[in-house]
Write a structure and sequence with these properties.
The structure is a single chain. The chain is of the alpha/beta class. It has helices at 14-27, 41-47, 55-62, 80-92, 155-172, 187-201, 214-223, 235-248, 287-299, 303-318, 332-341; strands at 3-10, 32-36, 65-70, 97-103, 119-125, 135-138, 146-149, 176-181, 208-213, 230-233, 256-260, 266-270. It is globular, with a radius of gyration of 20 Å. The protein starts with a strand and ends with a helix. Bound molecules: 3-isopropylmalic acid and manganese (II) ion. Residues 239, 243 line the site of manganese (II) ion (MN). The site of 3-isopropylmalic acid (IPM) has 3 residues, from helix 4.
Length: 345
C-alpha cells in the first residue's frame, strides 16, 4: 500500500521551498501518496480556524508522515495559528524526538576559521519543558504584575529522549553522547536529567557519555565543534542551540529537522521560519526543504532515495549552483532545478 504523506506548505516562503522539495520527491517515483492541506495564515484570518478539529485524528490514523513548510505571519502577532498547527502536531502526535543534524555540506560554508569537521546530531526533547504552556499571570497590567512560566520535565519524557539519543549513537556508529542542561541553577529538573542520563548511559557501555552546561555548550560548539557527535537536551535549550547549529552548517537555509514519534506518523520541516519579507520573491533557499524531504524518505524506509537527494544537494553546493545565501546567484526555483538535475537515478 502506498505510504500517505500530508503536505502542509504553510506561510511565507513555506510554499515556495516545499514546491522544490515536492519536485524531487515526485521525481523519485516512489509509492507515495501526497495530500495537500492549505492551512495557513490566510485561511486562519478568513475562517478563524487554524486546522479543522478532526484533522489531527485524520493525520494520526491515516498518514505515515507530514511534510511541513513554515508557519508565522505578521498579521497574527500572537502566532495563534502557528502554535495550534506546529506545536499542535508536536504535542498531539507525541512527536517527542526533535532530530536536527548539523553537518557542513561543503568546507566553504563554515563560518568558523579553520573548523571543517562539523558533523553531529542534536536531539531536542519536543513535548515538555518550557513549551507545555503551564503558568499564568497575576495582577496583569498593574505595577505588581507577576508572570510564572513553568518548565516541566517528566521521568518518562526525559528517559525516552535520552534513550533515543543513545540508540541513535549505537545504530549510526557514533562514539559519544553529550547531555546538556543548566543543572547548576535549575536544580530540580536538572537533577532528574542528570540521574536519568547516568542510568541510561549505564546501559550503553560502548558509548562515551559526558555532560556540559548549556552556556559552555554554546561556547564549545563554536570553539571545538569536532568534539560533538550526539547532543541531547531539553526543548528550550534545544531550540536555541539548533539555531546555532544551523549557523555552523551554512545557515538556516540548509538545516533540516524531523519531529519523530518512533514507528508512528512523524513530521518533517526545515528549521527556518516563514521569513515573510522574502516570501514570493524567489530568493529563499530550497535546500533545507529538500534535505528535509530526504530525512522523511529515510524515516519511511527509503534510505537509498534519501541518499540520492543528499548527494544531489552536495553536488549542487559544490558546483556553486545555489541561492545567494550560499554564495550562488540562483533563485529558489533554479536552485531546486539544479539539485533535481543532479539526482542520479
Ligand atoms: C523551531 C521554531 C519553533 C520552536 C517556533 C516557531 C514555535 O523556532 O521549530 O525551532 O520554538 O520550536
Ligand atoms: Mn527554533
Amino acid at each position: 500500500m502506498a505510504k500517505k504523506i500530508a503536505v502542509i506548505p504553510g506561510d511565507g516562503i513555506g510554499p515556495e521551498v516545499i514546491a522544490q522539495g515536492m519536485r524531487v520527491l515526485e521525481r523519485l517515483d516512489l509509492d507515495l501518496e501526497f495530500v495537500h492541506f492549505g492551512w495557513n495564515a490566510d485561511e486562519f484570518l478568513r475562517t478563524g480556524v487554524s486546522m479543522p478539529p478532526a484533522a489531527m485524528d485524520d493525520i494520526r490514523q491515516n498518514y505515515d508522515a507530514v511534510y511541513l513548510g513554515a508557519f508565522g505571519d505578521p498579521r497574527i502577532p500572537d502566532m495563534k495559528h502557528a502554535a495550534d498547527i506546529l506545536l499542535g502536531l508536536r504535542f498531539q502526535l507525541d512527536l517527542y524526538v526533535n532530530y536536527r543534524p548539523v553537518k557542513l555540506l561543503n568546507d566553504r560554508l563554515s563560518p568558523l576559521k579553520d573548523k571543517k569537521k562539523i558533523d553531529f546530531v542534536i536531539f531536542r526533547e519536543n513535548t515538555e519543558g518550557a513549551y507545555v504552556g503551564m503558568g499564568g499571570n497575576f495582577k496583569k497590567g498593574t505595577p505588581e504584575e507577576i508572570a510564572v512560566q513553568e518548565d516541566v520535565s517528566t521521568r518518562k519524557g526525559v528517559e525516552r529522549i535520552i534513550r533515543y539519543a543513545f540508540e541513535f549513537a549505537k545504530r549510526s556508529g557514533r562514539k559519544s553522547v553529550c547531555m546538556s542542561d543548566k543543572s547548576n541553577v535549575m536544580r530540580f529538573g536538572g537533577d532528574l536529567w542528570m540521574r536519568t542520563f547516568e542510568e541510561v548511559a549505564g546501559e550503553y557501555p560502548s558509548i562515551e557519555h559526558f555532560h556540559m552546561f548549556v552556556d559552555a555548550l554554546t561556547m564549545q560548539m563554536v570553539r571545538a565543534p569536532e568534539m560533538f557527535e550526539v547532543i541531547v537536551t531539553n526543548n528550550m535549550f534545544g531550540d536555541i542551540v539548533t539555531d546555532l547549529g544551523a549557523a555552523l552548517q551554512g545557515g538556516l537555509g540548509v538545516a533540516a529537522s524531523g519531529n519523530i514519534n518512533p514507528g508512528k506518523v512523524s513530521m518533517f520541516e526545515p528549521i527556518h521560519g516563514s521569513a515573510p519579507k522574502y516570501a514570493g520573491k524567489d530568493v529563499a533557499n530550497p535546500i533545507g526543504a529538500m534535505l528535509t524531504a530526504a530525512m522523511m524518505l529515510e524515516y519511511l524506509g527509503h534510505d537509498d532515495e534519501a541518499k540520492l537527494i543528499e548527494d544531489a544537494v552536495i553536488a549542487a553546493v559544490d558546483a556553486g549552483e545555489t541561492t545567494k545565501d550560499l554564495g550562488g546567484s540562483l533563485g529558489t526555483k533554479a536552485a531546486g532545478e539544479a539539485v533535481l538535475k543532479k539526482v542520479q537515478m
